[in-house]
Amino acid sequence: MNKLEAVASTENNGIPNALVSRVNDLPHLGFSEVSQLKKDIEHELERQFDLLSLNNVDLNTPLITAEGFPRDDLDLVTIRLIKRNVNVLRNDLRRVIERLEYLLPLEFESLQRQNSAVQKLEALDTSLVDDDSLLAFAKVVDVKIGSPSHEAGLQSDDLIVKFGTIHALNHNNLYNVGKLVQQQLNKEISLRVKRDDEIITIQLVPRPWQGAGLLGCRIIRI
């Protein structure tokens, strides 16, 4: 890649200036504007992950060889830029959700003053935790036949969007997933998973079985 191509690639992989400007203006945005900003950041995150895939890497792919040298088979400048963008967007998304949580009761009060229907209030509450718009944060692998995961309908390569109350911003490196599994022993946990671009609800009951663990599968971070 020559210098001009590298510059063009960097520009195409950057976060759109309009999105950056809206994030910077976050304290001055209303509820509907912040809700839309949340969706736009999630879409941009998905685009950045797609760019990583186009470069045949993910967030965990090593960029140096076993000998400690930069890999010459990868576009390291582009990949590092995309990883930086992902980190920036994740932080922006966390700020936006915190702002939504602050604005939500104010929006409720405004709707109540306008004698809005209860259904509209419930719709606003749902919009804050819309499962379909949240990013997948983990992948199911190695589902064992006859295990609780298998009986619940989980399949290898399912992408987890929500695991009970746990989602992309609060899983704490999957620690909270394991903690919830222990807390819900022999109790139902509702999962939302992406499979072939569809959102599927799974009811999983962690329990002892003839194999190892309480689920009979492995869950890895993505």
UniProtKB/TrEMBL annotation:
Residue ranges crossing the lipid bilayer per the database entry: none
Similarity annotation: Belongs to the proteasome subunit p27 family.
Protein name: Probable 26S proteasome regulatory subunit p27
Keyword Chaperone carried by entry: yes
One Gene Ontology CC term in the entry: cytoplasm
Domain Nas2 N-terminal: 32-105
Gene: NAS2
Record-annotated PDZ domain positions: 140-195
Alphabetical UniProt keywords: Chaperone, Proteasome
